[in-house]
Amino acid sequence: MAVLPRVVFFIAVVIFHFSEAQNEFAKLPESYRKGVRLAEKQVNSHNGVQYHFLFFKSLKQSSIEAGFNVNYFYHHFYLKATKCSRGTENADSKTCVFRNDRPVIDCAMCYKTFNGEILMEPKPYIHCIYKPALTQVMESSRLEHCNSMSFSSGTMTLLASTGSD
Question: Residue 135, by phi and psi: left (phi above 0), alpha (psi -120 to 50) or beta?
């Protein structure tokens, strides 16, 4: 009998974490969700990936409004493996349960939008790597690359803008 309350508690915690991750994604502004979907597509297309990865947590966001419906975005977030296999169609955290036995993938991306759509020129910068393998040099390189994207248009840097953490 002592096992039943533990099982119920475990199930409640698992359900809470899944709904929390889904709510995190839903809370993102649409421009950031589009970027996350692009990163998910890239990560899930790699041959070495066995499980489907989904958005887990946002770490930092910033944006610059450059005028004429042009915006630059920087987003740092985690993707997490699910129990669904790679290539699962229409996957979300309700149908694909997160795995807790794999490290998260740390992603940083920057991209330019026009009228709310991600432009392919300049090519969106997406850098995703398993968290344990991420180095300080890689983090610095990410920031330099994203700042150079916004400098080329004559705007202030993404990291100098006021964004939410």
Answer: beta
User: Which tens digits make up the pLDDT trace of 122-145?
Assistant: 999 999 999 999 999 999 999 999
The C-alpha atoms of residue 21 and residue 32 are separated, in whole angstroms, by 15
The answer to whether residues 57 and 22 touch, using CB atoms and an 8 Å cutoff, is no
- 55 DSSP β-pair partners: 79
Give CA–CA dist 82/18, Å, rounded: 11
Q: Where are the beta strands (DSSP E) in 40-103?
A: 51-67, 70-85
For 22-34, the pLDDT digits (tens) are: 689 999 999 999 9
Task: Name the token pair of 96.
Answer: 């694909």
Burial 104-115 (b: 16+ CB within 10 A, else e): bbbbbbbbbbee
pLDDT in tens, 66-119: 999 999 999 999 999 999 999 899 898 889 999 999 999 999 999 999 999 999
